[in-house]
Amino acid sequence: MNYKERWQIETMCRAMKSIGFNMEDTHLTDLNRLSTLVAIIAIAFVWAYLVGIDKHKNINSIKLKKHGRRHIAFLNMGLLELRIPS
To answer: Which of 34, 37, 67, 74 has the fewest CB atoms nearer than 10 Å to its CB?
Structure first.
């Protein structure tokens, strides 16, 4: 496995834990419920990521910082687009 593939896995784990879905806040311990939650979060992760890519390509291109990285990640852009206004 190369570094780029590993980084994608790390990004998803970080999103599941802290930067988007806060899975740990559920305090689930039942293995069946936890498995279901992981599956649902994985689907939501992919959905938000694809929405972010679509918005970047078709609606509002993400600006690049001076060092070449995007100002906002596709996942974060997708989560912002999908969130329910309060």
So the answer is: 67
